[in-house]
Specification:
The chain is mainly α. The protein has one domain.
Length: 222
């Protein structure tokens, strides 16, 4: 049972994330403004807003902008020895971007009004910043997990990247351009897509086939 869970962990996470997204989608579709949206408004807008905090949140939200994400993808191509990771990261971000815009066009949820600090176009659900940031920085977490050997450095980088994803999601609520339900839904759906991609990466890279060829070679030599 434990081995089976370990083998299918990415599919399990993807399934649970997709279920969470669908639950929030139902809430938004039928109720439009959820109870937890009001709760988040009270915390991030009514209690936390200040001029210094606004500067911080604008800085954090920048890391989810198209310019920053595209620059990050280019850097992966430049510095990664395995260029396939650059292609996979670009594919993941592109798929998430397209799906986000399709869902926005279907749901057509208006953005919050009356307390926004910055102005954004398009619809509100799900949050594009949350989805694309989770897609990009989430894939970076995967690369760090696979490639960084030093455990302290590895888990420090993973924690930092995860904190950045959550911070970008929070910044969208604070700046008044998204509801909490937008950001959680965007995060959950992007995680589901990322987990599906990660599940198939060994096959894409031919790692399983490589292992089999290596085994056969050893048998022939012996």
């Amino acid at each position: 049972m434990k081995k089976k869970l370990e083998k299918n962990k990415y599919i399990i996470i993807a399934t649970l994330s997709l279920i969470l997204f669908l639950i929030i989608l139902k809430d938004v579709y039928f109720d439009e403004i959820t109870a937890y949206d009001d709760w988040a408004y009270g915390i991030f807008v009514e209690n936390l807003r200040s001029s210094s905090m606004t500067t911080v949140m604008k800085g954090l939200t920048f890391f989810g902008n198209a310019f920053c994400i595209i620059a990050g993808l280019i850097l992966i191509f430049i510095f990664s020895k395995d260029k396939i990771y650059g292609y996979l990261a670009t594919f993941n971000v592109s798929v998430v971007f397209v799906i986000n815009n399709i869902i926005k066009a279907i749901v057509q949820r208006p953005r919050p009004s009356g307390y926004n600090i910055i102005t954004e176009g398009n619809y509100s659900f799900p949050s594009g910043h949350s989805m694309v940031s989770t897609a990009f920085y989430g894939f970076l977490i995967y690369i760090v997990y696979k490639k960084v050997k030093n455990k302290k450095l590895k888990y420090s980088l993973i924690a930092l990247l995860f904190a950045l994803i959550i911070s970008i999601c929070i910044s969208r609520i604070y700046l008044g351009v998204h509801y909490l339900s937008d950001t959680i839904a965007g995060f959950a759906l992007s995680i589901a897509i990322l987990m599906l991609l990660v599940n198939f990466i060994p096959s894409i890279l031919g790692e399983e086939k490589g292992d089999k060829r290596g085994t056969k070679t050893k048998e022939i030599k012996s």
